[in-house]
Design brief:
disordered C terminus; alpha/beta; Rossmann fold; 8 helices; 44% helix; four-stranded parallel beta sheet; 13% strand; Sirohydrochlorin ferrochelatase; 277 residues
């Protein structure tokens, strides 16, 4: 169970909000709650409208107001309530890798809210993200689901372009998860930036020059960060198929919770083994 009075976990969701984005965020939160019952988890949208999609700033302000109201109600009821201190919320960016522009937006929302909130790192790099990428590739018929199975997939790629957003820093971070993915698939994996012109094409050329003939594009993205058509265009440009974004793969919810628990120094009782750090 989540400790009584623990800060809220607030998922900071990038990109233009939509019903698909909301259901993805709801699923990530549902996974986190299943790992830590009693967790107060909420969603704040970086580009929200405060009508259908609450902004990160307003979600933080609301959480702070609720905490103050609970304290005042307890006092009014004559209970020996301790004045709340520490962060109102722990904000977890829904990002696989670092994206400077989006993280600046998150920090600005925290400052503007004037709420005591702690901001965690992004979710990657992490072995669970390499697993998620492997699953998405195998779902698209671009990789074997399991190296132990000896049959081959005719459409399996022999070189993977790992597509990130966020410039050089994001490419470097994606490269770490890429090494883990390469070890799982036993094929070369190279990271490139979707938001830098020519980056995907250059990496595709490097893979082909090194002997890869059948490439696949694996988005190192959760989904809301960019328009999905950019992934399709990039795959078309280099003449290969693309896997789906990571989406609400179970590891995403587990990693979001791990960021929250490590920020608070609490360790959830985990039957399934939530990753630490």
């Amino acid at each position: 169970m989540a400790p009584e009075g623990a800060p809220a976990l607030v998922l900071a969701v990038p990109g233009t909000p939509s019903s698909a984005t909301r259901s993805l965020a709801d699923e990530v939160i549902s996974i986190a709650r299943s790992e830590l019952p009693g967790l107060d988890a909420r969603t704040g949208y970086l580009d929200g409208d405060d009508a259908e999609f609450p902004t990160l700033q307003s979600v933080l302000a609301h959480a702070a107001g609720e905490r103050t109201a609970r304290f005042e109600q307890a006092r009014a009821a004559g209970l020996d309530a301790k004045e709340p201190d520490g962060p109102v919320a722990v904000v977890v960016p829904l990002l696989a890798g670092p994206d400077g522009a989006l993280l600046r937006q998150v920090r600005q929302a925290l400052m503007d809210s004037r709420v005591a909130a702690e901001l965690t790192d992004v979710l990657g790099p992490h072995p669970l993200l390499a697993e998620a990428l492997h699953v998405r590739l195998s779902e698209a018929g671009l990789a074997r689901a399991d190296r132990a199975r000896l049959f081959t997939v005719a459409t399996a790629a022999d070189g993977i372009v790992l597509a990130s957003v966020g410039g050089d820093e994001a490419v470097q971070a994606a490269g770490i998860t890429g090494m883990l993915l390469a070890a799982r698939l036993a094929v070369p994996v190279m990271a490139a930036a979707l938001d830098e012109e020519g980056s995907i094409a250059t990496v595709a050329e490097q893979l082909r020059a090194a002997g890869s003939q059948q490439l696949a594009l694996a988005p190192y993205l959760i989904g809301p960060e960019i328009d999905a058509s950019l992934v399709e265009e990039a795959a078309r440009e280099v003449g290969c198929s693309a896997a789906e974004a990571l989406g609400a793969y179970p590891a995403i919810g587990k990693l979001a919770l791990a960021k929250y628990t490590s920020a608070l120094g609490i360790s959830p009782q985990q039957a399934q083994g939530t990753p630490a750090g």
